[in-house]
Design goal:
This protein is of the alpha+beta class and 325 residues long. The chain folds into two domains: 48-142, Beta Complex (Ferric Hydroxamate Uptake Protein, Chain A, domain 1); 171-320, Chitobiase, domain 2 (2-Layer Sandwich), CATH 3.30.379. It has helices spanning 2-36, 75-82, 181-191, 218-221, 225-231, 234-237, 289-297, 301-304; strands at 48-54, 59-67, 85-88, 93-97, 100-101, 103-105, 108-116, 119-120, 135-142, 171-175, 198-201, 211-217, 241-243, 250-253, 259-263, 268-273, 281-286, 309-313, 316-320. Strands 11-10-12-17-16-18-19 form a seven-stranded mixed sheet, with helices on both faces. Strands 1, 2, 6, 7, 8 and 9 form a six-stranded mixed sheet that branches. Helix 3 runs parallel beside helix 7 (289-297).
Length: 325
């Protein structure tokens, strides 16, 4: 009888230890999964920024930092509290900001568009809520070549910090080769903002609610759906640049879609686009490994601020579209 009780006690102890080990292992794996998805432990910022620019961000008209979103705040109410606004269509469409209105310039349509955390919102400004940490950007530009520019890079480090519509999203860095300096640089730049991005191979697939950053020469990215939209020009992607078929030349386009300049060896590109309602996809790419590394090192606020996309030449950064010749 005592032997049976001892065996039973040992069995219970083993089962309890096993249960505790399983629970502990589950907690560790859950923590690793969160880290791998890019959900950092650091809180997202709470201050709201309002930016008003002209000509694809080339001219800053008004910038207000450190704003607080009030209860029920919308993009429209935030703008009206901080700028002089002319509205139309019963208060739903912004016609002018700070005395500058949309119009026809030299036969081209020019209007106000807005982006929240670098993403063109699918709804009107009166229907889009402002969340803590949002970067709200209004820009007046010619839309004859791109009626829709779904994502821009000039709000960096957004959308990686605050996400989209108040929801922080997991981040995955997809590298042509995980061992390259460019892959390490991009990952380190994101993690410096407490964004512990997961690392994967190009085209790994995954949930549409994952922010993807593709890193590698254009020849290795061109098969991706988002990259294919960039290859089709600004009407398809909102990016005013195209690579040659072999990826060894990068053509920069002006706001009319015309060739402004062509870059060859060592040229890089940082751009973002978006398909339908999926999370934006960023590309850190170039004509060769040197160009990709140059683009990776340009992943910072100083280079990207207020720019829709950026090309990198050995001589420096070039805002896109390439205004002037």
């Amino acid at each position: 009888m005592f032997v049976a009780l001892a065996d039973s006690t040992r069995r219970l102890m083993v089962e309890e230890l096993s249960a505790r080990f399983t629970a502990a292992l589950g907690s560790v794996l859950a923590a690793l999964a969160l880290a791998g998805c890019g959900l950092g432990v650091a809180p997202a910022p709470t201050a709201v920024e309002l930016l008003v620019t002209h000509e694809f961000g080339s001219s800053v008209l008004h910038r207000t930092d450190g704003l607080k979103a009030s209860a029920g705040e919308t993009v429209m109410s935030l703008l009206m509290r901080n700028d002089q606004v002319n509205i139309a269509a019963g208060g739903h469409i912004v016609q002018g900001i700070d005395g500058i209105s949309g119009s026809q310039e030299a036969g081209r349509p020019v209007d106000w568009f807005y982006y929240v955390n670098g993403v063109e919102a699918p709804k009107g400004a009166t229907a889009t809520s402002v969340h803590p940490g949002d970067h709200v950007w209004w820009d007046l530009h010619d839309w004859s070549q791109a009626a829709k520019i779904p994502a821009v890079v000039g709000s960096f480090p957004e959308p990686f910090l605050s996400g989209i519509e108040g929801k922080r999203l997991p981040v995955r860095v997809e590298c042509a080769a995980a061992s390259t300096a460019a892959c390490h640089t991009v990952t380190a730049r994101l993690r410096a903002y407490d964004v512990p991005a997961a690392i994967a191979a190009i085209g790994s697939g995954g949930a549409p609610a994952t922010l993807r950053v593709m890193v590698g020469p254009w020849a290795h990215l061109a098969g991706d759906l988002e990259a294919q939209s960039i290859a089709r020009g600004p009407r398809a992607s909102g990016v005013y640049a195209r690579f040659s078929a072999n990826g060894e030349a990068l053509t920069l386009l002006d706001q009319d879609g015309r060739v402004a300049r062509t870059l060859l060896a060592g040229a890089g590109l940082i751009a973002a686009t978006r398909l339908a309602e999926e999370a934006p996809v960023w590309v850190i790419t170039g004509t060769d490994d040197a160009g990709v590394e140059r683009a990776a090192h340009a992943l910072n606020q100083a280079t990207l601020a207020d720019r829709f996309a950026v090309a990198l030449a050995p001589s420096g950064a070039i805002a896109l579209p390439a205004l002037g010749r």
